[in-house]
Predict the 3D structure of the following.
Amino acid sequence: IAGITQAPTSQILAAGRRMTLRCTQDMRHNAMYWYRQDLGLGLRLIHYSNTAGTTGKGEVPDGYSVSRANTDDFPLTLASAVPSQTSVYFCASSDSADGPYNEQFFGPGTRLTVL
Amino acid sequence: AQSVTQLGSHVSVSEGALVLLRCNYSSSVPPYLFWYVQYPNQGLQLLLKYTSAATLVKGINGFEAEFKKSETSFHLTKPSAHMSDAAEYFCAVSVDYKLSFGAGTTVTVRA
């Protein structure tokens, strides 16, 4: 059972470049999330999707976009990367049918450095 | 808005000693609270969650947390630390089915 896979594992990117972080889950979860993790700030929600075809903005959405064409995939795109987007990015999924107690399952993360 | 605050960004304990990680929440309604653990270079995994069925919640790896409404706290404890407990721990609250995390507490275990 793979759970959630993320690609790439790490990336160094020049400022101004476009980058898509990939996330795929095989648990048939309807909800998916993108977080960024920064030292001393914990994890902050960037975007989420409650079900295929819908997306929503989280706490820090500026500079990022997402799409949810199907249940399994939830890519995160940086249209024009800036150094402040240097971070570790985590994708997560959950079965929202469990209600507010739903456990989120996390991928291994993508470490992104923008120079 | 509901949020959690973790007291102490770093905790160092001796192997075999008590581990105590503090988390306070701000909520005007019964909160849905979680503790997650992140081992080095890995994603987060659930330790335990408060579902209002019981104030003392037992999780994996010998951890437990007690919900205290009067203190608005959900502190995490483990009676005897093991070297494998070295990790970062996050308290989180569910808001509209989305998680809001605390800043995290890094635990180091001394031999």
The two ends of chain B are 41 Å apart (CA to CA). Chain B touches chain A through 21 residues (CB under 8 Å).
